[in-house]
Here is the input.
Amino acid sequence: MNCQKCQQRLMSTERPEFPDLKVQAHLAICAACREFQRNVAKLEANVQRIPIPPTDAKARLVREILGQPALPLPKPRILRAPPSGTPHTVPLRQWLRRAQWTGAAAAAVVLIGCGIWFGMWLARTNTPDGTVPPDVAKGPEQTSKPPQSVDPFGKKGTSKNKKPGKKDDNIAPPVLADATPLLAKLMACDLKLAEAETTGDKVKALAELADALQMETQMLSKSAPPAELNKLAGFFKKVIDDGIVARAKELPMGERVEVLKDVAAQLTKTTNETALLAQSSPKSAEALRTISSAARDGDAILQKLMQEAAE
Amino acid sequence: MEATVRTVQLPNEHVLIHQAQHGDRAAFAQLVEHYWDRLYRWLCHLSHDRHAAEDIAQEAFMKALTAIASFRTGSNFQAWLFRIAHNAFANHVRARKRVRQAFPENLASTDQGPAELAMNKETMLLLARAVGRLPTEFRAAFLLRAEEEMSFQTIAEVLEITEETARWRVFKARQKLMTACGFAQD
Here is the structure.
């Protein structure tokens, strides 16, 4: 065996450090080929040391699979619980009184629409006697996990809510935060919008609202009927078109990049995520594509606005 | 005779798969915990795009979860999962042209493995760039061999090619990398 043949065999074997007997015999008498063998081994050992960017996507996916809130919102937010005895609708009313701008009107439509949508959804999820349907109760985490509306993989979660109007003294009145994660998020967005003083803050609050809507659509994509997903997608589009984009155009040049940078990044991510998910979820593809294209179009406008500000 | 390859499967993997097939999502989450880093790393190398790698890995796991009932007990779960990811990657490539991300200049200095096998930073950079420049099909096969220590037969299964083609791709990748790193001898 010559050196060329030996080296070719080293490179074509599964494990160059354990060559066959003929190659071993050649290696025993050839220092150059032993060096070559060491270098092949070195090459493969060092490929494993090439750094790759870190990611937190694994944690998010595991949370989704376990049925916990799928994707944490970008920033930790304090969900202010309404004071006891205060109707949950007060912040919404306060906000509606203050709403004098089109973006807020768009968000109002979405909030009300989502409220109606979720009312219908919950009514359907619960059986007439307010108990959990048998197919819903099957999940292994049923007794240990907090109640959820529906998980992203097609199983409906448990819900403590009784059907509206049903009397039962043993059951505590429904707490909004427990009702559905989306409603809790919508309330948080509502509070933020009410507190927003500047256009930038309003854009950010609307971006959170849009994010909550698209996340919910993603989570429900495997289980909810397409028509209902389409409604959620419609709400999302409205928040983007009439809310974020409309507000963004009113931002002062000096604030545009700072405010819109994160929102645009969020929309890029939404575009990609929903487009990918649409490929694997034919039933919900229409809604997901609506979200994807609304996010893409919104992103394009925001990029343009930022570019204008940069010039 | 060629040595056996390192086994990467979890000790109780077949139990977890069985539980996942019966709807136990916590069991599937353990599989995700075990295989995510490997799959994400491979996809990062293939796509040169962290976000694409995240998306494809996520999509692959979601597809795997959806199709876990159809997974044949006793077959190689890692190969099955990587094949799903490879198909998703192929779809991704077809769907869009992504901008290649530059290789990070600040290489990790953590040494893994025997000191005599460690490369200096410059050679590491050369290697990383050379891996990035390999044709995708060579890179995919080579990384499955070098990082996952898969046999040629398993690589063939993942990439849906013949075992001989898998061997050829790994050989060509090694040949190119040896040249790029200045290890080749004339």
DSSP finds twelve helices and no strands in chain A. Confidence is low (pLDDT under 50) at residues 70-103, 125-179 of chain A. The radius of gyration of chain A is 27 Å. Residues 40 and 265 of chain A are 42 Å apart (CA to CA).
